[in-house]
Structure formats: C-alpha cells, structure tokens
Write a structure and sequence with these properties.
Blueprint: H1 4-25, H2 41-44, H3 65-83, H4 88-96, H5 102-120, H6 125-148, H7 152-173, H8 184-193, H9 199-216, H10 225-240
C-alpha cells in the first residue's frame, strides 16, 4: 500500500513525464523560412514557438533549448532531492540527458517511468529506509552526546521525538491511519493491536513516552539521568529493526 509521500512522489513524476511530452511537442524538422521561429504563434499557441532546426540532428539541439533546459533542470533537481546524487536513477539521467534532442528527452522519460514503477511496486522502500536510518542514527548519537555532557533532559526529548517518528513510519508501512496530532500512546496502542509487536514492547514504549512527556513539560524530578541513558540505548536498538 502506497503512503501519502509515495503518492505525491508518483504524481510529481507523472507531471515531469508529461512536461517531457510538451518539450518533445516543440520539435520541428528543418524547413523553409528565414525566421528561426514558427511565425504562426497566435494560431498554434506555445507549440508554434519552435526554433528553426539544423539540417542534421548531429549538428545541434533539435528542441527548443529554453523549454528543454527548464525540464532537464527540474527533473535532475527532483531526482537528487529524492534519491541523492549517487543513486543509479540520478546518475543515469545526468549521463543520458545531455542535450536538447528527442533521444535524450525520451531516455530521460524512460528513467522517470522506471522510477515510478519501482516506487509503485515498493522496490525503493529499502533505499528510503536506509536514508531514514542514517538520519535517525545521527539524532541518537546527538542524544548520547547530550547525556554524556549531563544534558539528559534535552536528550530525553530528542530520543522521544525519534521514537515517535519511528512509530509513525511503522504505522504508515502497515497502512495504519496516522492523524497529524496523534501522539506516542495512540501510535503505540495501534501497533500493538495490529500485532506488530507484543505487550511487553508496548509497555516499555509507554514508560519511555512518560519520560519524554515529563522532560517536555518540566517534570524533571520524575526521571533520572540513568533513566535517560537506558531510554536512549533502548530507542537505538528499537529503531534499528523496523527501519531495515
């Protein structure tokens, strides 16, 4: 089942594929006339604003350069922001789509269609999980450092936020509805009810949620530095498995 983020991503991919079609529609074989543009703009709209093409494809771009560059930039920016510069899809697009010719645009659309299929089939879940795991690992490391410097109160808040984010992602992956203002207790109860984990884990998460809430609301006498150390260690272990 696709979550809202995947649906929005696929919608954006469709938009970029369609925009590629619009770029391709601006292609015009070399023809007669001294003007580098089609003069029948009023009759044909933007599709009429096409540059006069070289006599051979190898001589240069065969598409409107401005519209091609706009599309090329948007797609590359989208792929890098979604997957990173080193992912196969981003690297392939950059290598294949180098100039404003039909072949380049069509190959770029092929990259987008392949990405769309992988997201639709859930094949990119592993990659996205690795990225999420790396970010969470950074936050957990920050919490460990805070505890070591005797800042266990903000460490409790940070570890609690990581725990809540992890529970939200677990609910989304299981198709469990997650309202915007849902808190740890509700997420925890829903996951336990769905059989994602047992009652012992549910009780442990409830206890950790109490520490986080006390830290956030100024009840500092209700937990100790040792409690937070245990909390951070447990959250680190717990987040590792669901995000693999």
């Amino acid at each position: 089942m696709l979550n809202d983020i995947d649906k929005k991503t696929i919608s954006r991919i469709d938009t970029l594929i369609n925009k590629g079609n619009n770029v391709l529609a601006l292609y015009r074989p070399s023809g007669s006339g001294s003007s580098p543009y089609d003069n029948n703009v009023l009759g044909r709209g933007i599709r009429g604003l096409t540059q006069k093409q070289p006599s051979r494809i190898s001589d240069g771009p065969t598409l409107n350069r401005s519209f091609f560059t706009e599309w090329q930039s948007q797609v590359l920016s989208f792929l890098i922001s979604l997957l990173g510069t080193e992912h196969t899809y981003a690297k392939n697009f950059k290598e294949l789509v180098t100039c404003g010719c039909r072949d380049c645009v069509e190959q770029g659309q092929g990259v987008l269609r392949a990405l769309k299929e992988d997201i639709s089939q859930g094949y990119l879940t592993k990659f996205k999980s690795l990225v999420a795991a790396e970010l969470i690992g950074d936050f957990i490391d920050q919490a460990v450092a805070l505890v070591a410097e005797d800042y266990h109160i903000p460490a409790a808040s940070l570890a609690g936020a990581v725990l809540e984010d992890t529970l939200r992602k677990m609910c989304e992956s299981k198709g469990i509805p997650v309202p915007d203002k849902t808190k740890i207790d509700k997420l925890n109860a829903d996951l336990a009810k769905a059989g994602v984990y047992n009652k012992l884990i549910q009780k442990r998460i409830t206890a950790l949620a109490d520490i986080r809430n006390n830290a956030d609301h100024g009840h500092f006498d209700k937990f100790t530095k040792e409690d937070v150390e245990d909390m951070v260690a447990w959250v680190r272990k717990f987040t590792a498995d669901p995000l693999e």
